[in-house]
Specification:
Blueprint lengths: L1 H6 L8 E7 L6 H9 L5 E5 L2 E6 L4 E7 L5 H10 L2 E5 L8 H13 L3 E7 L6 H18 L5 E4 L2 H13 L6 H4 L3 E3 L2 E6 L6 E9 L11 E3 L3 E3 L1 E6 L12 H9 L2 E2 L5 H4 L4 E5 L26 H14 L11 H4 L5 H6 L10 H20 L1 H8 L16 H18 L3 E2 L7 H4 L33 H14 L10 E10 H8 L5 E4 L7 E10 L13 E5 L2 E5 L2 E4 L5 E5 L8 E8 L6 E7 L5 E12 L4 E15 L3 E5 L5 H6 L5 E3 L4 E8 L4 E6 L9 E8 L24 H7 L1
Amino acid sequence: VLAEKRSLGSRDGPPHLVAVVLLHGRAAARDTLRLLQGQDSAAVRAGPGGFALLCPRLKQRWRFVTAQAGDLHAVLDLAKVADSLLFILDAVDGWDSAGEHCLSCLFAQGLPSYAFAVPGGTDLPPKKWIDARKKLSKAVEKRFPEAKLFPLNTEQESVLLLRHLSMQKQRHLSFRDRRAHLLAYAAEFVPGQESDLLGTLKVSGFVRRQPLGVNSLVHIVGHGDFQVSQVDAPPDPLSLNPRVVKGQKRSQDMEVQDDSVNGTDEMEEDVKVLMKADPSKQESLQSEVVPDPMEGDQTWPTEEELQEAEDSLKARRRVVKVPKGTSKYQAAWIVDDGEEGSEKDDDEDEDDDIDDDLMEEAVSQEGESSEEDPGEEESETMTVSECLRDDQYDEKMEEDEQMLERYKQERMDEMFPDEVDTPRDVPARVRFQKYRGLKSFRTSPWDPKENLPRDYARIFQFQDFSRTRKNLFRQIEKEETEGALVGWYVTLHICNVPVSVMESFKEGKPLVLFSLLPHEQKMSVLNFLVRRHPSNTEPVRAKEELIFHCGFRRFRASPLFSQHTSADKHKLERFLRPDAALVVTVYAPITFPPASVLLFKQRSNGMHDLIATGSLLSVDPDRIVIKRLVLSGHPFKIFTKTAVVRYMFFNRDDVLWFKPVELRTKWGRRGHIKEPLGTHGHMKCHFDGQLKSQDTVLLNLYKRVFPKWTYDPHVPEPVPWVRSESVLPEQEVEME
């Protein structure tokens, strides 16, 4: 721990990377950075997005990078690689609604070491300034119990802030501690020979956390995975002891040196080639399996399979007395006396003859009444909506009408979970032909390899994912990876990069690179354990397009929601529940946990709303997500343990088709269908106890569901968050 603390920001380690985050619209970073630049005996070097501060007397070097105001992606990307976060607060109001949203996202992603600076406030009267400080301290202590506020109005206070940043304990983020990463200090784009839109991107920066190998893939956050062809070692632009002429030393200490953004000046100097990629050892960019359409064809059985089939036939043979001249085929149809007796119906032992007579009489009366007034039954099953649309909704209010419909669907699903109405125009045995009944949802077997979709032929799967993960992490901790060591200033030659990456870097957005572990470029099925964020109250339906921030990746996908249980089957949830943790399932590139995940939903105006936060649970295509349908019926005539049930089916064939499925009621009774009565879907059912007249008979059907292949690595930039008034402690109590 002591060695790590001493290496950060020293001559042998990378510069101490500090990301400056503005939490209020009135907070100005310019005055703060000007105070930090005015340190005695410290050289200032301008760079992309901020500046570097070199202090040879303290043997420390810092790099300060400021995120653009309102750019959520820039703040989250800088927090992925920053050693410390410097939050700039307003002297009176602290942070506003946009700052609150930013803090919520940073908490969910993982918060590195941080500090709070409060510039300004000197123009206030002393008494008001003291009251504002107390009020601000209470608001900060509620979210950050161990935080300390640093006023920033003089150079002496800036020295205290720098000392605190360099001496405080570093907080670790697990998803970046096992992967090499760097923040680009300079970049240059060399167009390719075939097209100007693709080329080689030369990115320079300091290697952090882990050694960077040339044969491993790198992920540019927000742009995708790429291969590295070469690693160079240019001169360090932020060296504490630069090689300069004595006459130029004083001028360099007094003036601010401007480094070019594209880094061409420094790359023209003596550049040493550290290593080049070996094609035989380089990781492939293949992310999907190319399915073979002939792979599932039936082949001729082998001799071993034929022998196994013959042995199984011998084991099933029985000795039967047959007349002379009987063939084997004819003998197979002869039934023993014992079998004939065992095939008799067990209903003879039931003592419900009286109930049967009463039931036939009731059914005959019901049949007459149904023929005379068929509309009476339909009126009883009609569902009247409680939330009718008002006349004020016109054609321009389509979005509000859709939201109202979602609220209604979420409310109905909460009141009557998984219940559906049996269609009358289509037979139920056709409409629900893909569903099956289960004796017990918890204990009944379900083969995970049964009826897989075609998309499963495109993904990768581990025989034992947890064992692979443990072996890989053990290898990272014990073995030293060949490559650029931590703290080196290197230039990576990244192949086949689109020119849009360089354009975004020129616009001032941070360029962040992560090296990938083996297999992390391949597609599989990822399961995230998330919980809905308290700030979001709108209904979120399954299979809606959401934006995922998983570890160092960003992508769009349409997920499935399911319950988080310890069983081998998990029930599908149609909406994201606000009161329980759910599992989100998507097709995405493999990522080894632990890794945080943030779920955003894009509005029609382009803003991103945080709807859920959590972590990566597993990479498991065999996790079974079951969709449940519940068909409901109503008891018409109730007897001792039998009842006539109607409105579940509407023809006789459907009753016979679903006869093997077990019935249950909302009040805990269990039973089964005995026989259909008439031709209108009425059925006689037997239960383990007498029903109540207000009870409802239910029949559960199940089907396995799979996510849709909607993975898209390109996420649009969010519209800046609309800032409102500050979030003070009194206002927070009212909101709660």
